[in-house]
Amino acid sequence: MTARARALGCALAASIAMASAARAGVWGTEPVIGVSADYSTNPALVPSAGTPETHAAFTLDAPSSYVGNAFKLSAVPQFRFSNSRGYSTVDSNYAHLDLRAEFDTERGTWIASVGAAQDSSLARDYLTNGSAGVRRDTGTADINWDHHLTERWEVAVDANGQRTRYGAPVGVQTLTDNRYVSVNPQVSWDRSERSRLTLALGAGRYDALNGTSESRNAYAQAGYVVSLSELWSLTAQAGYTKALNNATVRQLEPVISGNTILLVPVDKSVASSQTGALYKVGLTRSRGRITGSLQASQQLLPTGFAYLTRQYTYELHLNYAETQRLSFDADVQRLSYHFPAITSTAGSTTDIVTASVSASYQLTPAWTATMTGSYVTERYGAPAVAVRSAGASLALERHFHWAQLP
Questions:
Q1: β strands within 286-365, DSSP E
Q2: What is the pTM of this model?
Q3: Is 365 left (phi over 0), alpha (psi -120 to 50) or beta?
Q4: How high is the pLDDT of residue 265?
Q5: Do 179 and 162 form a contact (C-beta atoms < 8 A)?
């Protein structure tokens, strides 16, 4: 944590120094504070009958930014303080801090960002002992360069890295402290005012911090973005990805010593690979009283297990603005994770389905009340075990409008 704090401090100091070198700008902030009450029938998602729980929490978001002629800097701290110190889906505390610096030139943009977060792992991996997740400490860094070669041609390069550590679970350790770095260049061509073609390449490396496993991946992907109308837009990306995996496992092997056969632990290297399609398809409605999106994707992601995990995502999100003060929001999402095994080809699969419906009403220009109902179900194992939970929450937030900092 000390090294991460130093890195954030250095990044903030460098950003402020850059800002002072730019033309005069303005610092401002727009904080949001809130209180909430949550109820869940099975917050730990245990297979046996879960115990319903109720929790109260205080939340604070304090986005601040500096805006100059060519330079922008933002800092976004977010906190949740609950009456419980657990790490389940209902009672988890969190603390996030994200810093972002942007420098605009005549034909391009430089963006650098760093972040630190402490929250729940959100990997429901300890179902048998009643813990839905464990403490997770994450540090991230990202540099993006975007440049317009001509009015229609654009190139971009993104380099990012993340480092994740997990707290000690109650049961058997399966989540792995890890780091992941990747580089992703992309070329775009504006075919017309309403459509764009993209070609992206990328490579990454995923390592367990204890040195027991690694994944090296690469991908190639083509994309197409088109505005179907003033309301609708379509995004389609498709490609191919491959990951080479390697792990060190300890096995017992017989060794003859005189007239005795001994079992001696021996470290062996196990290699495997993951290949397959890479895609993302999304349909978005961005204007009108009804807005929303429908998307499906398949990709390799670092999720805290030995290797990169193949994740399938399907999501429908809708928002309806009844009036300027009253709006409704609905979301349904299915996540399917395929975890490749180290010593066999079977692997394992976990399916998580979540659904939520909320109503938000602006009581005054500053105060907003939100009621939410949610449902989550998870299937894992062979034969499959299904666990589920339903919940409700009420949140009251106070918005402070833009205030200039001295």
A1: 290-301, 309-321, 326-339, 348-362
A2: 0.82
A3: alpha
A4: 79
A5: yes
